[in-house]
Q: What sequence folds into this?
């Protein structure tokens, strides 16, 4: 379990370094060959940070409301509330707010900017379908997302994706409506082709890296959750039941899909490369190999 945790943290760091290198490469290209200077990169970064900070501080309430989650307490749902409370004591972390989503779908998610401002939501379907040890595994997985600051990591990634998207958009508009200062002698021929390829591929590469980071954090939460319960088989069996269920979560949307423990749409992606979640079969295999 410790090796899985170390491996996934290391891979996440590598992906973020690649992200930053991509931004630097774009900035260098715009400065050297297009004559735009580094102002475009700085401006895009500032705008992305401002936009992301808004979602960072308000994103949890938006995600919970969009999923139709209702807050519960120890009186209304003592079974789930006490289980979350016990796992928090085990992990040595603050108690998050607990929410219930009235849906037959088998799913759950955690949100919040840090352990002191966090929430965990579970569907009524997953509470009814899972045995005690299995539900503990799911809760431990979600608490691990909070403890590992995965929301903060994804916030950084979203800033980087937004920066690349803005730079690419500005590049396109400037080229379309007048070009750059040095367009006559520096941005013709091969350079124009390179710029066009950069324009098309940069946002795609950025989103692929974002998805890769999201998947690595799922593996990390699986390993961290298993370390919390000391019983990887519980989460493995829970994932098997989640995978076997065909009920989609009707209130889920593309903006919040990556938060859930499993794909809430229950549709097979045409390629795992473009999925927000790693294959459940692979996650189960890793859990049973611990």
A:
């Amino acid at each position: 379990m410790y090796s899985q945790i170390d491996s996934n943290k290391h891979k996440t760091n590598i992906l973020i370094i690649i992200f930053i290198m991509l931004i630097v490469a774009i900035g260098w290209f715009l400065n050297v060959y297009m004559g735009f200077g580094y102002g475009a990169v700085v401006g895009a970064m500032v705008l992305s940070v401002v936009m992301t900070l808004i979602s960072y501080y308000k994103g949890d309430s938006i995600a919970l409301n969009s999923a139709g989650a209702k807050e519960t307490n120890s009186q209304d749902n003592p079974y789930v509330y006490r289980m979350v409370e016990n796992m928090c004591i085990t992990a040595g972390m603050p108690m998050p707010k607990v929410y219930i989503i009235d849906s037959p779908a088998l799913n759950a998610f955690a949100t919040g900017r840090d352990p002191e401002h966090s929430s965990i939501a579970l569907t009524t379907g997953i509470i009814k379908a899972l045995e005690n040890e299995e539900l503990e595994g799911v809760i431990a997985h979600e608490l691990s997302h909070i403890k590992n600051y995965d929301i903060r990591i994804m916030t950084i990634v979203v800033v980087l994706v937004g920066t690349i998207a803005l730079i690419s958009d500005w590049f396109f508009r400037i080229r379309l409506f007048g070009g750059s200062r040095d367009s006559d002698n520096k941005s013709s021929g091969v350079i124009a082709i390179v710029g066009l390829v950069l324009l098309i591929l940069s946002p795609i590469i950025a989103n692929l890296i974002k998805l890769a980071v999201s998947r690595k954090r799922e593996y990390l939460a699986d390993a961290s959750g298993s370390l919390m319960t000391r019983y990887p088989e519980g989460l493995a069996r829970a994932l098997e039941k989640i995978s076997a269920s065909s009920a989609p979560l009707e209130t889920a949307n593309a903006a919040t899909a990556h938060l859930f423990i499993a794909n809430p749409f229950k549709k097979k992606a045409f390629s795992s490369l473009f999925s927000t979640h790693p294959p459940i079969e692979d996650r189960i295999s890793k859990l049973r190999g611990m």
About this structure: The longest strand covers residues 108-114. Residues 2-59+152-207 form one domain. The CA atoms of residues 106 and 245 lie 7 Å apart. The mean pLDDT is 83.
